[in-house]
């Protein structure tokens, strides 16, 4: 059982999962939802309106047509999507994040945040300071949804590569969280993206590092005209 | 010419460099200094006492005995080491960093900070908040030495691997800074460590991301019993 900060307990969901992608019409949400469905999970694309969620679901379904073992996809309004799922992926902009998360029925669910609080100015991308440096989007979501269990993952995956490439991605995916069982859900989902399990990178507070790291990758992308991500070295020695 | 925040100008040094390693007796400083000397640069290992710096220099010199093209190494008290060098590597603990940096003759020099402000508690390693999230060790050094130009690099290199392995490291090294010419010095120095140039990861403020990223790697190291670092993917597509 997974204990939540509110003291409630959640039975860890087992694969294949039913995953609501909140913000499923954005590039990160659409790309990850596509990959999860391709990996055999059921995916509900959430959006502000059910119609927009359904439109993305149709686009993804067309892309998955004929892919053996693919899961089913559908669309719904964000809150309805969350209500149907055992795993909820938050793939929403940081601007408006708190209000949206507070409006969702997240109690009893495993919530994965890939939200990156970033700013942009004439010097490029940078990490926004959350709670005077003592917080992150993932920790904020956990505070707003104390009867859910929140993990952080998929922050640094290139949205372009998720959608435009068919093969598994080369990069590593880091997962942080305070519940090993909840991290296990995200770690297993990683296999739909890169063909191997995600890396357990520690406690939820390390989302403070994973989220703004995306600013570094954006900076590298602009300089070198690539779609960068990261790999962790040292596993083969 | 490199313009400093104080409005002075620095002529970019040319390789081979004379590099002072401040904190040269620590594992990161010793390992990087060894690699730089192996790569043909002159290295002065600085320490609180000249004797300790000299002892490390002797240890490194013994290691380099017979290595073709290696630079010369020596030891000195930190301030004396800085005074002799055109490039100064700050490889000191965050605790006491400000007082030490303020005491060094850094005007007119290219300064490379690999300082990681980290904390450790029973939940593992975490990034310390610098200037309420709006600062970093590298930016602090730049503020303390306005007639120097500071870049950040070598934050995430494993000290163990630097010293214990002889071959080039597999990982990528990220360099941040507000002066392209100063970054070029660090980027060139990377070749002594991994056999290729470092990656220009953007402006100095992104040191806020590179420095605490080391907490993520430490967390991975503890979980998987490895010496991890990072590679940037996307360069080959």
UniProtKB/TrEMBL annotation, chains A, B:
The keyword Oxidoreductase applies. PANTHER family: DUDULIN-RELATED (PTHR14239), F420-DEPENDENT NADP REDUCTASE (PTHR14239:SF0). It comes from Nocardioides fonticola. It comes from the Bacteria. Residues 18-117 form the Pyrroline-5-carboxylate reductase catalytic N-terminal domain. It holds the Pfam family F420_oxidored. The keyword Secreted does not apply. This is NADPH-dependent F420 reductase. Keywords: Oxidoreductase.
């Amino acid at each position: 059982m997974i204990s939540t900060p509110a003291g409630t307990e959640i039975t860890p969901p087992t694969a294949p999962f039913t995953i609501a992608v909140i913000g499923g019409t954005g590039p990160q949400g659409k790309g990850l939802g596509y990959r999860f469905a391709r990996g055999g999970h059921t995916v509900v694309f959430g959006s502000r309106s059910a119609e927009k969620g359904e439109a993305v679901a149709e686009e993804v379904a067309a892309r998955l047509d004929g892919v053996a073992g693919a899961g089913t996809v559908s669309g719904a309004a964000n809150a309805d999507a969350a209500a149907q799922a055992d795993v909820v992926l938050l793939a929403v902009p940081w601007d408006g994040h708190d209000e949206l998360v507070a409006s969702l029925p997240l109690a009893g669910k495993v919530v994965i945040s890939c939200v990156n609080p970033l700013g942009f100015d004439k010097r490029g991308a940078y990490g926004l300071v959350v709670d005077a440096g003592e917080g992150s989007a993932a920790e904020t979501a956990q505070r707003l949804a104390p009867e859910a269990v929140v993990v952080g993952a998929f922050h640094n995956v290139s949205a372009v590569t998720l959608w435009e490439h068919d093969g598994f991605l080369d990069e590593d995916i880091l997962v942080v969280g305070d519940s090993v069982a909840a991290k296990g859900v995200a770690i297993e989902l990683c296999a739909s993206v890169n063909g191997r399990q995600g890396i357990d990178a520690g406690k939820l507070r390390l989302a403070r590092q994973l989220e703004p790291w995306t600013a570094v990758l954006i900076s590298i992308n602009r300089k070198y005209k690539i779609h960068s991500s990261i790999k962790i070295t040292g596993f083969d020695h």
